[in-house]
Amino acid sequence: MGKPATLPCVAGIGLRAPHYREVLDTLPPLGWVEVHNENFFGGGAALHTLLKVREHYPVSLHGVGMGLASGDPLNPEHLTALRELCEAIQPAAISEHLCWNSVNGLVANDLLPFPYTRESLAHVARRIQQVQEKLGRSLLVENLSSYLSFSNSEMTEGEFLAELTRRTGCGILFDVENLYVNVRNLGVDAEAFIRAIPHEAVREYHLAGYSVRDGCLVDTHNFPVYPEVWALYEYVLQQIGPRPTLIEWDSDIPALSVLMAEADKAQQRMNAGHD
To answer: Whole-model pTM above 0.90?
Structure first.
């Protein structure tokens, strides 16, 4: 399986290009940072900047393009680029979404859902094992925000994730906001999801803000964390316990101070669980 995730159990932020220079110039007190893998595959100035950041903060690599559930074979160039990035950065964790994104060589720039069947489980488990063998590292798999469900699913997403961890030794990146989106959009039972996943496999949490479009919650990562998501996060902390927690903000990116204030809110809630 390879190296496990070793993030510090504190709050961090998603580091995006608008804040690179400020972070390196001021070295603010950040617990850790997460970046998207694909932004650094080309090397050059972007990778040079990330290497500088890595001198001061733990870095988590978060993938958005692998498509663990896709029917197409895993892209060998993508995997090689990711392995080289891991070797350069020595990340504290590496994660991917539980989704598909390609068919017959055509790649969709999206994180697409699939039915939770025994066939899908065997397929995704094989691919996770291939990735972990290639990287020599344990992978964290993230639960998905979704806008439809499949009538032929044979298990819930939580049950699917639980069996994935058993078969592959992978960990879980528990996106609390994604779960809340699914509760509102699809009627998912949040408590049942939390009971289903093995708590010891949860290595990281994500928090973000969603948009509302025609009554549907959309996982856009362009608002502060909503009170309802904070409340769910507090419940998760009670049930599972503190884990490294990330504030995601990927569009309409605010000042760095805003992200740090959101991370501080998460840290306060993590600390309250130990009082």
So the answer is: yes
